[in-house]
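Exercise 7. Given the encoded structure of a 263-residue chain, write a plausible sequence.
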C-alpha cells in the first residue's frame, strides 16, 4: 500500500479511504474496507492501513495482526502472498524500532520471503525495496545497503508514478545524506518530500518532513519549521509518536482574570 486514492481517476471508495488515511483516521479508513475483506487486494490494503496506524501511534498491534492473518489466509497468488509477507515484515520492523517487542528476525525473514515471491516486474517491488532499506538502515545499521535499496525504490516509484512512495524515498535518502554531512543534498531531499506530501494532502507526513528540513536550515528558519511541525503534531493529537520530545512546546496561554469573584 502506498498512494492509493491520490489521483482524480480513483473510485469513490479509494478516495474516501485516502482522505481518512491522510489525516490519521486509520481505523475509520479500514472500516470502509471491512465489507470487501474477502477480496485479497482489499484485505491487503486494510492491513496496510492498520500497520501504518501502529507505526504512527504505537497502538493497535493486535488488530493489525488479526487483519494480517486474514490477508495471509486469503492470498492465492504469489503476488498476493508476497504483498502479505511484505506487510508482515513491516509490522515486525515497526514493533522492533518502536521498542514494543524485538521482532527483527521475523522482519528479515518476512521481507526475504516477499522478495522471493514478487517478480522483478511486480508493481509492489519498489515498496518492498523501500522497506528493505529501512531494515538495513535502522536495524542492520548498514547505510550503504540502505542507500542502494532506497535508490531502487526511488527509481521504481518514479517509473510507476507513485508520488507518495517517492516522498518517502526522497526523505530517507536525505537522512543518509545528512548523516554523512551532505547538507545541501539532504535539504533538497527533505524539501522534495515535503512538497510531494503537501501536493498529495498527506497531512500526517508533513510534520516529520518539516522537522527533518529544520535540521538542515540555519536560524531563524529552523525554528520556524519546527514550530510549524509542532503545530501539526498537536493538531493530529501527538502523531507520529516518534516526534514527541523533538518539537518545541508552546508556553501555556495566560488565563484571564474573571470579571467577578468565583468564590
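Solution.
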Amino acid at each position: 500500500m502506498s498512494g492509493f486514492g491520490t489521483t482524480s481517476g480513483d473510485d469513490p471508495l479509494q478516495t474516501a479511504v485516502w482522505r481518512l488515511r491522510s489525516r490519521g483516521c486509520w481505523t475509520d479508513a479500514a472500516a470502509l474496507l471491512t465489507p470487501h475483506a474477502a477480496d485479497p487486494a482489499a484485505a491487503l490494503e486494510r492491513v496496510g492501513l492498520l500497520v501504518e496506524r501502529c507505526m504512527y501511534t504505537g497502538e493497535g498491534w493486535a488488530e493489525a495482526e488479526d487483519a494480517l492473518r486474514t490477508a495471509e489466509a486469503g492470498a492465492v497468488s504469489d503476488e498476493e502472498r508476497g504483498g502479505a509477507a511484505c506487510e508482515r515484515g513491516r509490522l515486525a520492523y515497526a514493533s522492533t524500532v518502536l521498542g514494543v517487542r524485538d521482532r527483527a528476525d521475523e522482519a528479515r525473514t518476512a521481507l526475504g520471503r516477499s522478495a522471493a515471491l514478487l517478480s522483478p516486474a511486480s508493481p509492489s517491488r519498489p515498496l518492498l525495496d523501500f522497506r528493505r532499506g529501512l531494515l538495513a538502515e535502522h536495524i542492520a545499521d548498514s547505510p550503504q545497503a540502505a542507500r542502494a535499496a532506497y535508490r531502487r525504490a526511488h527509481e521504481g516509484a518514479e517509473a510507476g508514478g507513485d508520488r507518495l512512495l517517492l516522498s518517502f524515498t526522497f526523505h530517507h535518502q536525505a537522512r543518509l545524506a545528512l548523516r554523512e554531512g551532505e547538507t545541501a543534498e539532504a535539504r533538497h531531499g527533505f524539501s522534495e518530500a515535503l512538497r510531494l506530501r503537501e501536493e498529495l494532502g498527506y497531512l500526517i507526513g508533513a510534520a516529520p518532513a518539516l522537522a527533518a528540513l529544520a535540521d538542515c536550515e540555519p536560524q531563524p528558519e529552523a525554528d520556524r519549521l519546527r514550530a510549524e511541525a509542532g503545530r501539526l503534531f498537536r493538531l493530529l493529537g501527538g502523531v507520529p509518536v516518534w516526534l514527541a520530545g523533538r518539537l518545541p512546546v508552546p508556553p501555556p496561554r495566560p488565563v484571564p482574570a474573571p470579571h467577578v469573584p468565583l468564590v
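Remark. The radius of gyration is 20 Å. Students should compare their own answers with the one above.
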